[in-house]
Amino acid sequence: MKTDNVTNSNKTERTTIEGESKEALNQKTSVQFLLSTALVVITIILVSATAYYGLIR
Description:
The chain is 89% helix and 0% strand. By secondary structure, it is an all-alpha fold. The longest helix has 51 residues, at 2-52. The protein is rod-shaped and about 50 Å long.
């Protein structure tokens, strides 16, 4: 009985800690996704502009 109580409290604590870390991870992942997408778009625009003006072939 005592081991069951300890195990249940540990599971609750782990779930709470994992839930918080998942939210932080989701926030970090979304920021990284937006930054990488913005960098790709900027790169495509720069390559297109240099090709248009004949700086690259």
